[in-house]
Amino acid sequence: MEVSGLPVELWQLILSYLRLPDLGRCSLVCRAWYELVLSLDKTRWRQLCLGCLEHRHPNWPNQPSVEPRSWREAFKQHYLASKTWTKNTQDLESSNCLSLFRRRKGRRQLCIGAAGEFSSLRAALAAASPYDCLVLLPGVHEEQGEVLLKVPVEVVGQGNLGDVALLASIDQHCPTARLCNMVFMPARFTSVLYKTTSGYVQFDNCNFESGQLQIHAPGTCQVKFCTFSQSSIHLRSMALCVLENCEFVGSENASVTVEGCPSSDRNWACKHLAVLAKSCTASMREPDPAGCPMAKQDGWGESLLGPVRTCEIVVGEEQSSFLSAVGAQALLGSAQEDTEFRENLQAAKEEEYPALNSNSSDSDLHSDDEEDAQAVYKLPYQAHGLSHTLADVTHSRLQSNRLHALQRDLKLKSLQQELQQDKEAQSLANSLQGCIIRQCLFRDGKGGIFIYAQGQAKLEGSIFRDLTYAVRCIQNSKVIMLRNDIHHCKASGIFLRLSAGGLIADNNIHSNCEAGVDIRKGANPLVLCNKIHSGLRSGIVVVGNGKGIIRSNQIYGNKEAGIYILYNGNPAVSGNHIFQGLAAGIAVNENGRGQITGNIICENQWGGVDIRHGGDPVLRNNLISCGYSDGMVVGDHGKGLIEGNVIYGNKGCGVWMMSSSLPHLINNEISHNSIYGVAVFCRKDHTADYSHGQGRSESFQEEREGAGGENDSDSEEDYPAAQRPISVALVELNSINHNGAAGLHVKSSEALNIIANVIHANCDDGVAVLQSSQLTCIANNSISCNSREGVLVEAECQVELRGNGIYENSSHGIVSKGEGVITENDIIGNHRCGLQLLQAADMKVTKNRIQSFRDYGIALFDEAKGLVQENLIFQGTSKKSILRPMSNAEDCTIQNNVLLTFKKRFDMECMLINPPARPHIEGGAPESCTATDGQRVSSITTRVDGGCHNRGSIFCTIL
Q: In this predicted model, what pLDDT tens digit does every residue of 321-339 receive, in sequence order?
C-alpha cells in the first residue's frame, strides 16, 4: 500500500513524531490517513498513553505486563474520563453566555510553591476563578487548618508522581473539582484527607497515605490510577461512584466502606459516570488453563490438591469422561500425562470394579451342561412389575446411553447461558448503582470492602489477596461480584449476613483459610459459575437460616466439604461440579436443609454427600460417582429425600446409612460401587464409627445458639418435606446392581422398609439382614442374579418378606435364621434351595411359589420352627426332592403345601400366570397410603409379631 507515492512504512515513521492534536487532525484528512493513524497503535499511541502523567498502564495494578487490546482506545477512554469534572451543566437555560465566559479557553494556570506565584494552596484558591488549573510545584506543601474548596478548580502536581506531597484536609463545597499527580498525607489535626457532601471530585494518579476520603451523597467521586497505603474510602448513600485501577495496601480496617441505600438525590455527574461505566467495560483477564484450576500461587493449592484428575465411567465397551464439562484437558498438565492417567485409571478400574465391564454376573450363573435341563424346567418370570427397570440394568448399552444422557444434561453452563435464562441475574449483572469498583487490587490488609445498612456495590475484575477478608456484606445490602480473583484470605473470602444479597458470578475464589463464600443469617445471594477451590476449609458454607442459589460452579480441592449446610441453612444447589475435595462433596449437618439437584459430585475423599445430626435435604437427579469412600453417607439422625440420583463407581458403599437416620431413598440408580450398594449400620456396631469431624473447628457458636428459635416464616411452604413427620427409613424403587458386595446390607436397630427395588447382579447377597431388632419389611422387590443368596436373614432378626420376586441367584433364594413372615413371594430358578430355614429360625412361610434347579424347594434344618403352609413348590431337575423337612423342632408345622412335578414343557409355561410373576407393581409404583401419624408406608406391609407354633399334620398333594 502506498499513500501519495510514499511507502506506508515511511508515513508511519513521519506520523510517529506528531503530537496528539496533530494526529487527530491527520486522521480527518481522508480514509487512507485515518487508517495510517490507526496503524500506529503499538508505537505512537503506546508512547502517548504511557507518557501521560495523569494515568498509568491501562492494566495497572493487576496486570501491568499485559498489553491492552488497543492502546489508542485505552488512551481515548483515559482522556474522556479525565474530562468528566468539566461537564457540570447546572446553569439556567438563559445563562448560556455566562457559561461561555466561565468555560473560557484561556483559563489561568496558577503556580504554588517557593518559585511560584502563591506560597500556599489556600492563597491560590482565594485568587482562583472557576476551572483554573492550580499547579503544585515539586516539594512538600503543608496547610495549617482545613482548606475549603469553594470554586471548581483543577489541582495538579508538577513532575513525576511522588515529587509533590500535600499535607492537608480539604472540604469541598463546590460542584466539581479534580486532583491529579500528587501524594496526599493527613494534616496533624485529622486523618481526613478529603471530604465532600454535595459535589463531584475526581482523583487521577494520586497516592493516599494513612488517611481517609469521605464522600457523602449527593456528592460523588471518580478515582482512577490511585494508590491507598494504609488509607481508606468511606462512601455513604452513593447513587453512583466509580473506582478504577486503584491499589489498596495495608489497611487497618476495610479499604472501602459502602454505607446506606443509594440516594435518590443524584449528583449532576451521575449520568456522565453511567456513560463511562457502560463504555469502559473492564478488560477481563484471560484464564490460564494450566494455572487457574491448580491454584499454584505461592504453593498453597499444590500441596492440598495435587494433580487434578478425571474419572472414567465404563459400562460394557463404552467409556465417557463426565468431567469434560469442567475442562478435563485444562485440568491436566499435558496431553502425555492425560494419556498415562487414563491408562492407569482403566487398569485400576478393571481390578477394583470387575463388574463394570461385563454382565458376567448375569451369564456366568449357568454352566453349559445345565442349559438343556433349565430350558425344560425354567419358569418364565420376566414379565413382572419391575421388568422394565431390570431391562435397563442388564443391558449394558442402555445403561451406557443413560449415563451419557445424564452427563449431557448436567453439563456445566457458562455465565452467558445462566444470564440468558435467569432474568434476575441478568438485571443484577447489568445494574449500575452504588459504588462501581473495577480492576482494583486489594492486598496485605485487614479488609477489602465492607458494605452495610442497605449499601450497594459492584466489583468487577479486581484482585483480593492476603487480607483478613475480601468482601463483607451485611444488613440488607447488595453486592455484585463479576470476574474477581479472591485468594489467601485469613478468614472467609466473601461473607454475607443479615439478609444480604446480590450476585457472585464467574469469580476465582481459592486458597482461603476459611470458607470461600460464607452465607449466614438470612443472606440470599445468587452464586453462579465460580471456581471455588483449594481452600483450607469448606468451599461454600450456608449457616443459620442462610439461603442462596448456588448454581453452575466448579468446587474442587477444598480441605473440608465443597458445600457445607447447617443450622437451618436452606440453599438451592444445582448444576454444580463438586469434585476432588479432601472431605465430603456436600455436607448437610445440624438441621441443615437445601434443595440439591442436578450436580456432578465425584472423586471426593469422603462421602459424595454427607447428612448427619438432623440434616434434612432434598437430593434429586445428582451424579455421585468415583468417590474414594462412600457415595452417600446418612449418619446419626440424618434425614432427607434422596430421589432420582445416580450413585456410581464409588470405592466404598453406594449409600451408607446409620439405623438412627430416617432418609427416604427413592428411585436411585446405585451401581458398580466397590462394597455394598446400600448399607445400614446400627450405632453400636464398630463399622459405624465413621469419621465425621466435618468442619468441627468452624466458628458457628452464634448460629448454634440461635438455631432453635430462628426459623423463616415461609420455610414450611418452601420445604414441603418438613411438614410430614418421618418415623421409618424407606428404601423404595431403587435399582441396586453390580455392586462389589451385598446389594443391601442391614445391621439395624430400627425399623426399615425396603420396597419395590431392583436388586440385581451384586457380588454377594442380594439382601443381607444381619441384625434387625425391629421389623425390616422387604416387599415387592425384584432380587435376581446375585452371586450368593437372594435374601439372607441372620439369627434374632425380625423380617417380613412379602410379594418379592427372587430369581436366579447363585446360591439359595432365601436363607433365614431369624423370625417373621415369608409370604406371597416367587422364589424361582435359584441354584441351591429356594428357601432354607436354619438353626432357631421361627418363620411363617405361606403362599409362596418356589422352584430350585439344583436343590430342594424348601429345606428345614437344625431347630428351625414355624409354619410352612399353602406354598406351591415346583420340581427342579428330575433327580431332586422337592421338600426336605429335617428340622428337629417339635413346633415346626408343614401343611397344605402343593408339590408339582412336570413332564411337559407346555405345563411349565403356565405356572406363573395366575397371579403373574412377582413383584406386582401397579402403575410403576407400589400402592401406598398415609398412616395417621403421617408416615409413608406401603399398604402391603402388614406386620405379624412372633413365630407360629401350631402343631398339625403334614398334608402334601403330588400332581
A: 344 333 333 333 333 443 3
Map 308-349 to HEC letters: CCCCEEEECCEEEECCHHHCHHHHCCCHHHHHHHHHHHHHHH
Q: CA end-to-end span of the chain, whole Å?
A: 106
Indicate if the alpha-carbon torsion angle 50, 55, 58, 63 is positive or negative.
positive
CA distances 271 to 216, 239, 274, 432, 652, Å, are 17, 10, 5, 11, 61
Write down the residue that cell numbers 437445601 correspond to.
Answer: 594
Q: Determine the residue type at 728.
A: V
The answer to whether 192 and 233 have CB atoms below 8 angstroms apart is no
pLDDT in tens, 630-674: 999 999 999 999 999 999 999 999 999 998 899 999 999 999 999
Confidence check: pLDDT of 620 > 90: yes
Q: What's the sign of the alpha-carbon dihedral 866, 870, 876, 880?
A: positive
User: pLDDT digits over 359-406, tens only?
Assistant: 334 444 444 555 555 555 666 666 676 776 777 676 666 667 777 778
- Please, what sign has the CA dihedral across residues 60, 64, 67, 71? positive
Mean pLDDT confidence for 539-555:
97
Sign of the Cα pseudo-torsion (660, 663, 667, 670, in order): negative
Q: 483 CB contacts (<8 Å, ≥6 apart)?
A: 282, 284, 285, 460, 461, 505, 506, 507
839 — pLDDT class (breaks 50, 70, 90) = confident
Q: Are 546 and 569 contacting, i.e. CB atoms less than 8 angstroms apart?
A: yes
Residue 397: per-residue pLDDT: 60
Instruction: Tell me what pLDDT residue 642 has.
Output: 97
- Which runs of consecutive H residues, i.e. helices, occur in 116-219? 121-127
Helix axis angle for 387-394 and 396-409, nearest 10°, is 90
List, in sequence order, every residue forming a beta bridge with 171; answer none if it has no partner: 148, 195
Cβ neighbourhood burial of 264 (10 Å; 0-12, 13-18, 19+) = exposed
| 8 A C-beta contact, residue 562 and residue 585 | yes
What band does 822 get if pLDDT is binned at 50, 70 and 90?
A: very high
pTM given for the model: 0.84
CA pair distance 773, 781, nearest whole angstrom: 22
Contacts of 61 (CB under 8 A, 6+ apart): 227, 245, 246, 247, 440, 441
Quickly tell me which residue has 447489568 as its cell. 430
Tell me which residue of 292, 290, 342 sits closest to 312, measured CA to CA.
342
Element (H, E) at 208: strand 207-209
pLDDT value at 282 more than 50? no
Residue 232: closest CA among 215, 216, 248: 248
Residues 487, 911: Cα–Cα separation, whole Å: 70
State yes or no: pLDDT of 342 exceeds 70: no
Higher local confidence (pLDDT), 93 or 55? 55
User: How many other CB atoms are found less than 10 A from the CB of residue 908?
Assistant: 20
Asked if 781 and 759 count as a contact pair (C-beta separation under 8 A), the reply is yes
> Kindly report the CA angle at 924 between 923 and 927, in degrees rounded to 5?
65
Between CA 665 and CA 658 the distance in angstroms is: 13
